[in-house]
Amino acid sequence: MSLILFPLLYGCGSMSSKTYMDSPPLSNSYNEIWEATRGAIAKSFKISSEDREKGAMETEWSAYQSVAFDDGTRKKVFAKIRKNDTGAWTVSIAVQVQEQSTVDGGTYNPSKFWSNTESDEDEARIILTNIRIKLTLLKKNP
Fold first, then answer.
1. How far apart are the first and last CA of the chain?
2. pLDDT tens sequence across 61-72
3. For residue 133, what is the domain's CATH number?
4. Which segments of the chain does DSSP mark as H helices, in order?
5. Residue 81, exposed/middle/buried by CB under 10 A (0-12, 13-18, 19+)?
6. Is residue 20 situated within a structural domain?
7. In a domain, 3, yes or no
8. Which class for 14: exposed (0-12), middle (13-18), buried (19 or more C-beta within 10 A)?
């Protein structure tokens, strides 16, 4: 019986749900890519940690502050910059989404206050597009 329940429990909202979207190969310098990535993310999110040597950034959880626009979700961005096999750079962006769920079986459960949902691939694509636009402008106007 426990073997049957394990897959059901494994799929519950406590698991991390992040789907990374990748940029096409980029030929700009690492510094240009880092700054473009940082700028594109900072337009909508507050960066909470960054490690330039590892090529990693992460934001704080972002939620609407106005009651009129609160949809009960919050988002967090993760970015990775990696050199690929051809020597070009790739930026990978994941936008993790959590949904507010204050009740568990009819009782308040603080540990279940936020549960993971599908990644926001559209938001990740927007960030990647903004990065590519900035890098294209840098190539045209060095």
1. 65
2. 987 655 555 567
3. 3.30.530.50
4. 2-10, 30-42, 121-140
5. buried
6. yes
7. no
8. exposed
